[in-house]
Write a structure and sequence with these properties.
heterodimer, A: ATP Synthase, domain 1, 2 domains, 2 helices, B: alpha/beta, Pyruvate Kinase, Chain: A, domain 1, five-stranded mixed sheet, 6 helices, 6 strands
């Protein structure tokens, strides 16, 4: 089966890289699914979960990451997801994110509220 | 103990204390270089992908984005100078400042007004002492910069670039920092960030991968560029901050290493001098005893007669 190579990089580290058969991400004009052989694409990502169907060497499975803004670019079966902040769901501390969400709501801190909500959404999407 | 010998002993003691300090600072700097280098390496994939994406949009579309097009009559240029907060790093800060001075002179000769942005206490102090206007300065994170710091530094830069020149905006954006070439070499570097020089990056890209494919933009090329360029500036600033930090630690290590070597040298020569002084003391004492004894013997011989 055809596969595409995915690189998920945050500003200060490489978060995940490997082979995948499908990547679903949310761009500013809606969810987009990229499969091998897609036409070259460059899009702006919204904050939200990114779902990667892994295959090949990485084994069959699903990797979900919370991405806080960024870009998706695809060409020659190479997909890169660039984000200032990106975390895999197993790196997310659910309790902490919930606490942060509560705190942000009481303080009316929209930025923090959005960040915490994205983390929680990603965790739910992974289940 | 002779007075001379005591003075030498005291100096040896003080020099060995200094040596201990410089040795410790050398070790600390050495361990920090490794850490800083690792962070530079970790930030590279993001910077590389981002540069690729920016190049792709800029080449693949006919967009006339204000951040990409050269102003016909560039009047104001922003210069971001990256220095460190603390000294004891040899020529590190003065080299970076000198490079900035050269760039400023060149830009002024081209008839552009300079707007200075400075990172690090050393650069701020240099400009403050000379009463130069500084648009904004940042301190407190040069040893260990985070992406949030880079964002804070970039925000006013991006804002200035997006404003009209007449309203206090700038046409160009330059950055001066110290490039980390290797453990032994760090070179000050001046670079124009914006408007992008696509020839250079395009050629580099073409050399490696051939012509870039025609991208499909989501939602549109303009929107993608609007979103990409601030991130591009941030990532460039972040990379520059990290490299500057690594360079600073390397410069500190080298400076402290030569200080330790000098201290060792000094201790050696002082020990020699102290030994000579001790010998001189002993010789003098012996000759005094001998002289005294023979004087006594002479006196006794006189009274016997």
């Amino acid at each position: 089966m055809a596969e595409l190579h995915v690189e998920l990089v945050a500003a200060d580290r490489k978060v995940w890289s490997g082979q995948a058969s499908l990547v679903v991400a949310r761009t500013s004009s809606g969810d987009i699914g990229v499969m091998p052989g897609h036409q070259p694409l460059l899009g702006v990502l919204e904050s939200g979960p990114v779902t990667i169907r892994t295959t090949g060497e990485s084994g069959n499975g699903t990797v979900v990451a919370a991405v806080h803004g960024g870009f998706i670019s695809f060409a020659d079966n190479q997909l890169s997801l660039l984000a200032e902040v990106a975390e895999l769901t197993d790196e997310i501390d659910v309790e902490r994110a919930e606490r942060a969400l509560e705190e942000a709501k009481t303080k009316a801190d929209e930025e923090a509220e959005r960040r915490a909500a994205v983390r929680l959404r990603a965790v739910t999407a992974a289940r | 103990m002779g007075a001379q010998l005591r003075v030498y002993k005291r100096r040896i003691k003080s020099v060995s204390a200094t040596k201990k300090i410089t040795r410790a600072m050398e070790m600390i700097a050495a361990s920090r270089i490794i850490k800083a280098q690792r962070r530079v390496a970790a930030s590279e994939p993001y910077a590389k992908e981002l540069t690729r994406a920016v190049t792709a949009v800029a080449q693949g579309s006919d967009t006339q984005h204000p951040l990409l097009t050269e102003a016909e009559q560039p009047k104001r240029a922003a210069v971001l100078l990256i220095t460190s907060d603390r000294g004891l790093a040899g020529g590190y800060n003065s080299n970076a400042i000198k490079a900035a001075e050269e760039l400023n002179a060149r830009l002024t000769a081209e008839g552009k007004e300079i707007v200075s942005f400075i990172v690090g206490n050393k650069g701020t102090a240099y400009y403050g002492f000379r009463n130069r206007p500084v648009e904004k300065s940042f301190t407190g994170f040069t040893d260990n910069p985070t992406y949030a710091d880079a964002k804070a530094v970039s925000a006013p830069l991006i804002e200035a670039v997006q404003k009209d020149t007449a309203e206090g905006g700038v046409d160009e954006l330059h950055i001066v920092y110290t490039e980390f070439v290797s453990m032994m070499t760090q070179a000050p570097l001046t670079d124009r960030m914006l408007p992008l020089t696509l020839e250079a990056s395009g050629a580099e890209e073409a050399g490696g991968k051939g012509v870039l494919p025609l991208y499909d933009f989501e939602p549109s090329a303009e929107d993608v560029l609007d979103a990409l360029l601030p991130r591009y500036v941030e990532s460039r600033v972040y990379n520059a901050l990290l490299q500057a930090a690594a360079s600073k630690h390397a410069a500190t290590r080298r400076a402290m290493q030569s200080a330790t070597d000098n201290a060792e040298e000094l201790i050696k020569s002082l020990t020699r001098l102290a030994n000579a002084a001790r010998q001189a003391d002993i010789t003098q004492e012996i000759s005094e005893i001998v002289g005294g004894a023979s004087a006594l013997a002479d006196a006794n011989a006189g009274s016997d007669r």
